[in-house]
Design goal:
The complex is a heterodimer. Helices cover about 30% and strands about 20% of the residues of chain A. In chain A, about 45% of the residues are buried. By secondary structure, chain B is of the alpha/beta class. Classes of the chains: A alpha/beta, B alpha/beta. Chains A and B meet through helix 8 and helix 9 of A and helix 1, helix 2 and helix 9 of B.
């Protein structure tokens, strides 16, 4: 009798570990500098602390702070042999909501998958390519409140713990204190853990709207006859837009920013300091007053910091 | 030349992918306004190469090329001579980072300077290899934490002082060399304009704080460049044929401690280390100004 009980328990255990437990994969969409890679690593560490196997790695490219980047985490209860990028994630995490406008973050998401988004909106207000399980949290506000900087990676970890239930918030906190504390000091580690806990409590879970259409960006793929000699490319209009010299003008970098400058035209004395210092060259002089071209402004705040008459103010941008 | 005299026309467009708050695009954009459209730009491997274009997209509106990391000096020499040969007038400018100037490119640079090629060489100095992920270079100052000199319990950041590249170039006795900072626009523009009109090898060395690598708030880039000049960490001067012809002296010299404040790469510095950095500044000050600070 006892033998049978032990046997059935063992069977259950095996079933639990080898059949019901399947590997899950997370894809993080963020912008360079928001800490997508650190989030992926800290999540892997939290899963590891609970006795699992976990790997995490970023997508390497020529990314700069502010440019869209991806990072990946895989968790399993046995050794992980697969080394590729994650193409069919179980969970998609979006650290910057402007990214859901420009690319289909749901690409390859499994049928019963879930998306976790940093936004001020409720899950029902988020429009994606199809209706999916969706969790939202205003991680940027939480990060600004607690850390004083719009670095959302630790807040979003709390939201992942709440939304997926795969890892406990306690493990997330432990992983953050270990990972961030080691790099930034004990106090910073604890503050980041608090950000995760706050986000955990504020996360909303629901279902997103669907129906948003994405047109994939065309690529310029010249054949051998069209290819300029030596790759030297003059400015040319192609099906994929402008290429060659000066063509970066079509690359709108305005969605990189968190803060937005507003210029008080009454105060502006037309000194052109902001026009000179602006790294994006997005300040134009209209009637000898500074005017911002928001298509390119990355929200660095140099203009506001350097304005001799304090006519420029940086505000948190609310995107609708 | 004043900011108000600068032309509106840009030869370096918006839409590039530099980090928010990086002063390098402002530096090259304003330089290009003065250099004008008859300019050929060369860049070796550096951040500027990456953020100013990923083929086939490009922020430059002038002929532009890039080659290997170490041969900025030889490439711009070649381009300038080719233009001379076909009888076209063009300004050839090479823009390299501190790694491509202080370490990897110094041999080709020194050769081009010694041959007195008719080119402008610009070094934009952000004090580490930022493009590849903040590795120390010959330009990294004492105490700074980088990924190859991480501040730990035993070794507190970089142990050697910054190499004085500007002085090395002055010793080449070239027709014109100058150090610039984006925080001093009038001085900046005058030097760029002067460099444009001099014949022979010209060397411009621009100080360019890096918000990502130095770990400070992106809005403070220009402020930190200004503090570098005020503290003596960066000295603005120009020289013709090896003789210093102009040197900017800050009205009030601020202690180094004030400059390093707010920069994450110096956060671990002990009072002794700050003193050591101050001693280096004072030595440099005495050498360049010829008087006690």
């Amino acid at each position: 009798m006892i033998f049978l009980a032990i046997f059935s328990f063992a069977i259950k255990l095996i079933l639990h570990y080898h059949i019901t437990w399947r590997m899950y994969e997370i894809r993080f969409h963020g912008r360079g500098g928001q800490g997508g890679r650190m989030a992926a690593e800290a999540y892997a560490l939290a899963a590891f602390l609970e006795g699992n196997y976990a790997v995490s790695f970023p997508f390497f490219g020529a990314e700069r702070r502010g440019a869209p980047v991806r990072a990946f985490t895989r968790v399993d209860n046995k050794k992980i042999r697969i080394k590729t990028q994650v193409y069919e994630p179980d969970y998609v995490v979006v650290l910057d909501e402007t990214l859901i406008e420009t690319e289909d973050v749901l690409e390859g998401l499994k049928e019963d998958g879930m998306v976790i988004i940093n936004t001020q909106r409720k899950p029902e207000e988020v429009k994606l390519s199809k209706p999916v399980k969706c969790a939202t949290v205003d991680a940027t506000s939480i990060a600004l409140d607690i850390l004083g900087r719009p670095i959302t990676n630790t807040s979003i970890l709390g939201a992942i713990a709440k939304a997926t239930g795969k890892v406990s918030i306690e493990s997330i906190e432990k992983a953050i204190i270990e990972k961030f504390g080691e790099r930034l000091g004990k106090e910073a580690g604890e503050k980041n853990a608090l950000a995760a806990r706050t986000a955990y409590e504020k996360t909303l879970i629901g279902v997103s709207q669907g129906g948003k259409a994405f047109v994939p960006r065309k690529k310029w793929l010249p054949d051998v006859n069209e290819m300029p000699v030596g790759g030297a490319t003059p400015a040319m209009k192609t099906d994929a837009g402008l290429v060659g010299i000066g063509s970066f003008i079509e690359n709108k970098t305005g969605d990189w920013r968190t803060f937005i400058p507003s210029i008080d035209k009454e105060k502006c004395i037309g000194c052109r300091f902001c026009w000179f210092y602006c790294p994006e060259g997005c300040i134009e002089m209209v009637d000898n007053k500074a005017n911002v071209n928001y298509d390119y402004c990355k929200g660095c705040g140099i203009c506001a910091n350097e304005c001799p008459v304090n006519a420029i103010e940086m505000k948190r941008e609310v995107r609708t | 030349m004043n900011i108000k005299d600068l032309p509106e026309e840009d030869y370096f467009t918006s839409g590039h992918t530099a980090c928010a708050g990086c002063p390098a695009p402002a530096i090259v954009r304003n330089m290009m306004k003065i250099f004008g459209k008859d300019t050929i730009v060369y860049t070796p491997a550096n951040c500027l190469l990456v953020f100013s274009g990923t083929y086939p997209y490009l922020a430059w509106k002038v002929p532009y090329l890039h080659e290997a990391f170490e041969n900025t000096g030889s490439c711009i020499s070649g381009v300038a001579r080719a233009y001379k040969k076909i009888g076209k007038k063009a300004l050839v400018v090479g823009i390299a980072g501190d790694g491509g100037t202080y370490d990897i490119g110094i041999q080709a640079l020194s050769g081009a300077a010694e041959r007195d090629e008719d080119v402008i060489y610009v070094c934009y100095d952000n004090e580490a290899y930022m493009n590849t992920g903040i590795q120390r270079s010959g330009s990294t100052p004492y105490g700074a934490s980088t990924t190859t000199t991480p501040a730990g319990k035993k070794i507190p950041g970089k142990l050697r002082h910054k190499k004085d590249m500007a002085e090395i170039m002055r010793a080449h006795e070239i027709p014109y060399m100058a150090t610039l900072s984006i925080s001093h626009p009038k001085d900046f523009l005058n030097k760029v304009e002067k460099a444009k009109n001099v014949k022979g090898f010209r060397y411009l060395h621009v100080f360019s704080p890096c918000p990502t690598g130095w770990r400070f708030d992106p809005s403070k880039s220009v402020e930190i460049a200004r503090k570098a000049v005020q503290s003596g960490m960066w000295t603005l001067y120009e020289a013709e044929y090896g003789e210093i012809t102009g040197i900017y002296k800050p009205k009030k010299k601020i202690p180094v401690e004030e400059y390093i404040k707010g920069q994450g790469r110096f956060r671990h510095l002990t009072p002794e280390m700050i003193e050591e950095l101050q001693r280096w500044v004072d030595r440099k000050w005495k050498r360049l100004y010829g008087e006690e600070p």
